[in-house]
Write a structure and sequence with these properties.
Elements: E1 2-15, E2 18-23, E3 27-33, H1 40-52, H2 62-65, E4 69-73, H3 95-111, E5 116-118, E6 125-140
Parallel strand pairs: 3-4, 4-5
Antiparallel strand pairs: 1-2, 1-3, 1-6
C-alpha cells in the first residue's frame, strides 16, 4: 500500500458538489493507493503507522492529540510513467480488490480511536486542503 499523508489545517472532499467528508481542524489528509499484493494485514499496518506518525506540530501524532484524518482513495499513486507520455495503471489494484482494503484502513484507524472522514470510492472527487507547513510524507507499506 502507498499513502501520501499531508498535515492540514483543514480539508474537504466533494462529489458532484456535495460535501462527503471534511475535517475543520488540524489533522491529516491521507491519499491511499492499493496494489495487487496488498492484504488486510498491510492495511492495518498502514493505519497504525498513520495514527502514530509524529508529523503534527511539536512532533505529535494524531494519536497524541486525537487529531482527525480525512482518507481518500487514490489509485493514481501507483501510476507507472517509465514509458511514453501516458501513465500505466497496471500496478494499481482494481476496485473489487482495492475498495475493501481502503475500507480496512479506515476501519483500523477507527478501531485505534481515530475520528476518520472519507471520500467516496471510485467517484470523481474535488479535494480541497490547506497544507500546514507544508508537510507531506509518502509512505510505502509492504509485508
Amino acid at each position: 500500500m502507498r499513502a501520501v499523508a499531508q498535515r492540514v489545517s483543514r480539508a474537504s472532499v466533494r462529489v458532484a458538489g456535495d460535501l462527503v467528508g471534511h475535517i475543520d481542524e488540524p489533522g491529516l489528509l491521507v491519499l491511499v493507493g492499493v496494489t495487487h499484493t496488498d492484504t488486510p494485514e498491510i492495511a492495518a499496518k498502514l493505519a497504525t503507522k498513520l495514527w502514530q506518525l509524529r508529523i503534527l506540530h511539536d512532533e505529535r501524532s494524531c494519536a497524541d492529540q486525537n487529531a482527525p484524518l480525512l482518507v481518500v482513495s487514490q489509485f493514481t499513486l501507483y501510476a507507472d510513467t517509465a514509458k511514453g507520455r501516458r501513465p500505466s495503471w497496471s500496478k494499481a489494484a482494481p476496485g473489487p480488490i482495492s475498495e475493501p482494503l481502503v475500507a480496512a484502513v479506515v476501519a483500523s484507524l477507527r478501531g485505534l480511536g481515530a475520528h476518520v472522514e472519507t471520500g467516496e470510492f471510485g467517484a470523481m472527487m474535488d479535494v480541497e486542503l490547506v497544507n500546514d507547513g507544508p508537510m507531506t510524507i509518502i509512505l510505502d507499506i509492504n509485508e
